[in-house]
């Protein structure tokens, strides 16, 4: 028996070493899994913070965009109104110019008629010119 006792002790010691090693591997694995889980949770928390920050920035940018769009719409309406006013003024100026042009053409036709008569009616033409230059002018 004495020869078997050291062998049994060695076998039990080896079994205890193997058991301790397996327990160490189990604990190490659990520890690594715990660390990995903690890292995953920290990463998820960081992602949630980044997403919340991006959502906040997006909301601010959407508000700014809407404000700028409203400003641009107001400017477009103002420019359209100004354009319509300019068109109206141009149309009125054209009509006024056309009125004065047709009046000048009528005057010149009458003067031409006075001067083409045989004998030419120079006095009548001059009288008409003097009335236009020095007399009462018709209102536009």
Number of strands: 0
- Low-confidence spans: none
What is the residue-mean pLDDT, rounded to a whole number?
86
User: What is the chain-wise order of helices and strands?
Assistant: HH
Q: Report the biggest beta sheet as strand number plus sense, adding barrel if it closes.
A: none
Q: Determine the number of helices (DSSP H or I, runs of at least 4 residues).
A: 2
**How widely separated are the two ends?**
144 Å
Number of domains: 1
- What share of the residues does DSSP label as strand, in percent? under 5%
The geometry reads as: rod-shaped
Give the helix/strand class: mainly alpha
Radius of gyration: 53 Å
Helix content class: over 70%
Can you walk through the features of this model?
By secondary structure, this protein is mainly α. It has one domain. It has 2 helices and no strands. It has helices spanning 4-116, 122-134. The longest helix has 113 residues, at 4-116. It is rod-shaped.
């Amino acid at each position: 028996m004495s020869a078997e006792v050291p062998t049994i002790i060695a076998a039990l010691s080896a079994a205890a070493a193997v058991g301790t090693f397996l327990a160490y591997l189990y604990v190490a694995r659990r520890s690594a899994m715990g660390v990995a889980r903690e890292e995953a949770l920290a990463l998820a928390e960081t992602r949630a913070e980044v997403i919340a920050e991006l959502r906040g920035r997006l909301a601010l940018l959407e508000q700014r965009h809407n404000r700028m769009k409203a400003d641009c719409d107001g400017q477009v309406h103002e420019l359209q109104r100004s354009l319509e006013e300019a068109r109206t003024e141009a149309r009125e100026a054209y009509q006024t110019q056309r009125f004065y042009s047709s009046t000048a053409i009528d005057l010149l036709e009458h003067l031409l008629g006075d001067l083409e008569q045989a004998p030419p009616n120079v006095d009548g033409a001059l009288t008409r010119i003097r009335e236009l230059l020095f007399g009462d002018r018709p209102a536009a």
